[in-house]
Design goal:
This protein is α+β, with helices and mostly antiparallel strands. Among the domains are: about 60 residues, Alpha-Beta Plaits (2-Layer Sandwich), CATH 3.30.70; about 55 residues, Alpha-Beta Plaits, CATH 3.30.70. The chain is built from 6 helices and 9 strands; from the N terminus they run αααβαββαββαββββ. A hairpin with a 6-residue loop joins strand 6 and strand 7. The termini are far apart. It comes from Eumeta variegata.
Length: about 300
């Protein structure tokens, strides 16, 4: 009986053989398993590139991978309790019903005058000559000047719209190279009208839009870019008002189903436009140059 108990209590040992390749196999290191004291060599691109400038060399900076801390969904739902030492006790004034006077507060905010747009004078070699020119127009307290990073463009910030207009008139009359932006109060609200025939009478369209509360500055028919044929699209410029967005709600115009939508921005580069972007080309008074080579537009003739 005792011998049987001894045989049952003795554990059985199993021998396992480990192959040698399990210890000699190379292990691939990932970014997370690399040691912290390892130094990554900086990679240079200017050695093998023959077209690279000798004065320029780009390098990849060393970057360490940061571990993103993740929280379990159970801990995210738990709100932190605020440790407040004082507790508010709700109170009620029993004499509030005796107060019949209504508290009147003036919530009217004073409207701020619109700020003028800055004026950029290009190719400035002598700032004193520009300052003397501004003295002929206004005083020193009516504007602020600063020089941009390029070093040859001076930014003039007028104090109000009147000073802005007087400076622009003087620069245009004296043929001073500069550019600016249209005032926000003068910018038209442009929309695209789809669905009208190209032969539609624009004066009648203006009257219909005026009856709906929209004052139209101009309506221009859109033509094909290459064929120059009229298309069933119109550019409608509205006077800036608070109800300009209501024009998108109009679905019918002169017994025709139409669609009003915002215009698309031009993405192509226009050759020889004198650095004039489509949105402010009328406010640019710089000499005409080719945008591809920087020379005058007729240099190839």
């Amino acid at each position: 009986m005792n011998e049987n108990l001894k045989t049952k209590t003795n554990p059985t040992m199993i021998q396992q053989t480990l192959h040698k390749s399990m210890f000699t196999k190379a292990r691939s290191n990932s970014l997370g398993t690399l040691p912290q004291d390892i130094n990554f060599p900086e990679i240079s691109f200017s050695a093998n590139d023959p077209n690279k400038n000798t004065w320029q060399q780009d390098r990849i900076p060393q970057a360490k991978r940061k571990r993103v801390e993740t929280k379990s969904p159970q801990t995210e739902n738990i709100k932190k309790k605020s440790n407040t030492s004082t507790y508010a006790i709700p109170t009620h004034n029993q004499f509030d019903i005796l107060d019949d006077e209504e508290a009147t507060t003036d919530n009217k905010e004073t409207e701020k005058p619109p700020k003028p747009e800055p004026i950029f004078v290009t190719g400035v070699l002598d700032i004193n000559a520009l300052r003397n020119k501004l003295k002929e127009i206004t005083t020193m307290d009516d504007y602020i000047m600063t020089t941009l990073k390029s070093g040859h463009i001076v930014k003039i910030m007028p104090a109000n719209i009147e000073i802005y207009k007087s400076i622009r008139e003087k620069f245009i009359s004296d043929n001073i190279s500069h550019y600016t932006y249209m005032l926000k109060s003068e910018r038209p609200y442009r929309v695209v009208l789809r669905g009208l025939h190209s032969s539609e009478d624009t004066t009648e369209t203006k009257e219909i839009l005026k009856e709906n509360g929209h004052e139209v500055r101009q309506i221009v028919n859109v033509r094909h870019r290459t064929l120059k044929e009229p298309l069933p699209f119109f550019y409608v410029d509205l006077e800036p008002k608070s109800n300009n967005r209501d024009i998108f709600n109009l679905k019918y115009l002169n017994h025709m189903k139409v669609i009003f939508e915002p215009p698309y921005k031009k993405k192509e580069i226009i050759n020889a436009k004198g650095a004039k972007v489509w949105s402010f080309q009328n406010q640019c008074h710089r000499p005409f140059r080719c945008v591809k080579c920087g020379r005058p537009p007729n240099h190839h003739l």
